[in-house]
UniProtKB/TrEMBL annotation:
Gene3D superfamilies per UniProt: Glycerol uptake facilitator protein
Name the record gives this protein: Aquaporin
Highest classification ranks of the organism: Eukaryota, Viridiplantae, Streptophyta, Embryophyta, Tracheophyta
Low complexity composition-biased segments: 7-18
Ranges annotated as spanning the membrane: 74-94, 106-128, 187-208, 220-239, 259-280
Source organism (scientific name): Gossypium lobatum
Family: Belongs to the MIP/aquaporin (TC 1.A.8) family. NIP (TC 1.A.8.12) subfamily.
């Protein structure tokens, strides 16, 4: 009988997910705000089958299937946008009702803190876009699938309108204080909204797509950028940076003055801001190996 030490070892089956030493996932994990351009094939076809509600689409050469259902993403996006619009709009309304109690700093803090806590709480589910301009910019720069853009925008718009009417019911008749309207010329307001949204998306693209950026501090970085932008542009243009920040309160208050500025300028600024960071981003061969992405996922 051969020695146990010299016996030929038997072939073992490959490690399966969940076993010690085995991979945690069968396929590469996909983060929709952390797509790398090299790993992102251009979409060359429509989905093979119409997706069932809540299930990711399938396509021969489309984006990899996400590991979170579309229903969960949209639910998180709706709740996150609702909280953001409620908080960011409530600040100016309270400021109007109580004769400047909030001040500009308070208004900026309401929006910045809301963005920060939403990113930290729901960023791992939906990416916490909260902004149609951001969603469009990330899709244009190939960091997010175009097929999910309409659903994300629908969730954001509906959440904004719901939050605005909730505020109208609570603070009536002071809803007009939450509407972002320019106190300067349309040209100046357009330029301000373009520039502050450029700043915002430059930072968001850095923390969301570059593993060398702040990582776990993504929520703080983006929230601080929102706060800074409102301090700069709040008295002039309202510091919207977000079409649904203006659209929902405008619908609830019936005030559509200069609405086109807040739909077009943030979207243009977002696309150019995101593209600019993509252009200046360091290549993999220029620095040490990046650390693993830990936050601001999807």
């Amino acid at each position: 009988m051969p020695d146990e030490e010299t016996a030929t070892p038997t072939a073992s089956a490959p490690a399966t997910p969940g076993t010690p030493g085995g991979p945690l996932f069968n396929s590469m994990r996909v983060d929709s705000l952390s797509y790398d351009r090299k790993s992102m094939p251009r979409c060359k076809c429509f989905p093979v089958t119409a997706p069932t509600w809540g299930q990711p689409h399938t396509c021969f050469t489309d984006f990899p299937a996400p590991d979170v259902s579309l229903t969960r993403k949209l639910g998180a996006e709706f709740v996150g946008t609702f909280i953001l619009i409620f908080a960011a709009t409530a600040g100016p309304i309270v400021n109007q009702k109580y004769s400047g109690a909030e001040t500009l700093l308070g208004n900026a803090a309401c929006a910045g803190l809301a963005v920060m806590i939403i990113i930290l709480s729901t960023g791992h589910i939906s990416g916490a876009h909260l902004n149609p301009s951001l969603t469009i910019a990330f899709a244009a720069c190939r960091h997010f699938p175009w097929t999910q853009v309409p659903a994300y925008i629908a969730a954001q718009v509906s959440a904004s309108i719901c939050a605005s009417f909730a505020l109208k019911g609570v603070f009536h008749p002071f809803m007009s204080g939450g509407v972002t309207v320019p106190s300067v010329s349309h040209g100046q307001a357009f330029a301000l909204e373009f520039l502050i949204t450029f700043n915002l998306l430059f930072v968001v693209t850095a923390v969301a797509t570059d593993t060398r950026a702040v990582g776990e501090l993504a929520g703080i970085a983006v929230g601080a950028t929102v706060m800074l932008n409102i301090l700069v542009a709040g008295p002039s243009s309202g510091g919207s940076m977000n079409p649904v920040r203006t659209l929902g309160p405008a619908v609830a208050a019936g005030n559509y003055r200069a609405l086109w500025i807040y739909l077009i300028a943030p979207t243009l600024g977002a696309v150019i801001g995101s593209a600019t960071y993509t252009l200046v981003k360091l290549r993999e061969d220029e620095v040490d190996a990046p650390r693993q992405v830990r936050s601001f996922r999807r």
